[in-house]
Each structure stands twice: as C-alpha cells, then as structure tokens.
Amino acid sequence: MGILDGITVLDCSIAMAGPFAAQRLGDLGADVIKIEPLTGEWQRHAPAGGITGNRINVSFLSLNRNKRSLAVDLKSEGGREVLRKLVASADVFIQNYRPGVADRLGVDYGTLSAINPRLIYVSMSGYGEDGPSARRPGQDLLLQAMSGAMMSSGRAGEPPTPAGQYLVDSIAAYNAFEGALAALFHRERTGEGQKVEVNMLDAITTIQMQELSVFTVGQKPQERSAEPHAHVYIRSPYGIFGTSDGKYMALAMPNFPGLARALDEPRFAALDEMTAGWEDRDETFALVREAIAKFTRDDVLARLETEGIWVAPVYGYADLVDDPQIRHNGTFIEYDHPTEGRVKTPGFPIRFSKTPSELRFGAPLTGQHTDEVLRAAGYDAAQIEELARSGAIGRGEA
C-alpha cells in the first residue's frame, strides 16, 4: 500500500500546478478524484507541443495519472450537491480557481469546512487571494518575468531569457504538495483540518532565498554582464561554453591554477580570484570561452575533471533520457495506456523504503469513473441515472 493509502483527495484544479500537486499525492497512494466539467478539464484541450494523442493529449496524460475522473457540472445544484456529499468524507480538497470563483460556486473554505471540519483545503493562486495583483493572470512566463529571476543571467542590454521549463508551475505544485502533507500531519496530531494557501509569486520568490538576501541584506545590485554569465551573484567564469565540435558544456567556479593546467593556458594561473572573478568577470569569461573553444567537449570535460573542476555536458532531452545515471535511477517509468498506447514518462522523485510510490493507472478519460465514485459515495443506480438525465454529471468521455 502507498504511504497515503486511505486518504481521499478531491482535485478541482486545472492546468499544471494544481494537477501536478494532486498527482504527487496520488503517486503516494491517495485516492485522487479529479472533478472536471462535463466537457473535460481545460488541459485536455490545450496540448503542449501540439501533441494531441489519441483521446488524451500528452499534457493531460503527464499530469493526471493515478486519478479517477468524475465529470460534474458545479454550476448546477445537482452537481454542487454531489460535491458536498464527497467533501463530507474527503481528506484534501485542491482548487486553483480565479479569485472569487470558489465563493460563487459554493466551494470556498468556509462552506466546505462547515461540512467537514477535518478537511485540508488547498487553495492555489497566481498572486494571492487578495491584494492589488490578485486578479492578474497567473501564467508561468508572466510570473517568471515578475520574479526578478530572469535578470540574474544572460547579457546586459539583451532581453532576459526565461527558463525552458514551466518553472513557476512546478515550484508552486511542490509547495502545495508539501503544504497538504504538513497539514495532514497536523491533523493526525490534533484532529483539525485547515486551509493551506499557495501562490505562484511567493513560490518563485522564496526559492531565490540566497539571491534576494544578497540584494536585501548585502545591498549588492543585480547587474548583468556583457558576457552571458549564468548568474549575477557567482564569480566568473560561470556559464555555458561552446566546444570545437559544436557542443556545449557547463563550467562552475573553477580554481584558476587548475584551469591553467587543464586548458594549457598559463595566463590563468596568475589570475586573482576576487579581481578576475568579480571586477574583471567579462574579460575572464571571454578568455575562458576562447580557451575552451579549442577542444572537443569530451576532451575538455576530461581535462577539467582531472583537475577536480566542476563541469557537465549540456544535454538535450535525447541525451537526458539515455543518460546512464537516469537509467540506473529508474527516473522514467513505462506503462501501457488503454487509449494512448505505450507511455514513457518521468516517474517518482521520492523513494520510500517501505511504502514506495507506484503507478496504479494512467490518466483517465473525462467522467470515466463517475458511476464508480458516486456508487462509493452512497448513490444508488436510480439516483445516478437521474443526475445524468438532468445534466449534473457526465458518464464516460463527453
């Protein structure tokens, strides 16, 4: 059994951050019921990369394994009554509605905690539930832009480069996952449920603990260099360098005598770490770039590693998937999905010696488990048929 076996999660979230958090709970054994509109959650209709799949696009497939789907119209009284009945015996409720929507639907914390005082209510938002930016669109790229993080790397005078991942969504998801687990632990001790609030702006801000403290406490300004330095608060050379075979490598904070030996460049041995690393960091970066460009990637990596210098190859996804350590770790899992065929996808990042995560089933079709969930909640066949006839629920794929 999974470590969260016996915990029921109602996932009313959409897009990435909320569904990702709920999926992590499902991976640990929780029974996650994905409550989605009769036409399916938004992510079913917004395929990343244009990869639509057979009946489930890859975006949705990747964020909704280990969940059952209940299709219900929360704008109808019948649909809201179904949700209230499920809440009465649920452990965790997750939503990332726009501010005000939960109140209008009658699924706000005050309403649901009155039904079930032991409920852990996880509310996720872009900027917070109130305040001057509360109604701004909470989209990943926009939050990256506002976080200040983009201005910590790249060249001065050039447009900042965003992360190549949905970075803010992922961090917010893990904040919500962590918050839900902590609140469940508190409930085990006290019997009390509570509300857990997570917003994307705080999530991306707080992971910059060191950088922002250097700015606020150390009063060091955030100034980008002329060279494409990888971080404004780490000494040069620190970044990505091209090699003679058209590949790239990453180099982090080397000692200059070792760099001189590895690159057959005596000039580096005389460099002072503080002067070259901070005051002359553009010149230092350019010298290192010129020296590294004379070697192939494999050659220069071997030379630098011999000196104990921190280096790594720059991978694309094809390289990553085939990396020996990734294979050794079992980072990816593979399984057969009834409509999408063979699926290979990232698996479980947390390992437990006695209660390992497991794949029980892949992402569901819209409303695939509506009858199953309602029967378990106490509805009989006639009641389920009436709810379907009234349009309050959906059964099977809409």
UniProtKB/TrEMBL annotation:
One of its GO terms (molecular function) is CoA-transferase activity. Keywords: Transferase. It comes from the Bacteria. InterPro entries: CoA-transferase_III_domain, CoA-Trfase_fam_III, CoA-Trfase_III_dom3_sf, CoA-Trfase_III_dom_1_sf. The keyword Transferase applies. PANTHER family: BLL6097 PROTEIN, SUCCINATE--HYDROXYMETHYLGLUTARATE COA-TRANSFERASE. This is CoA transferase.
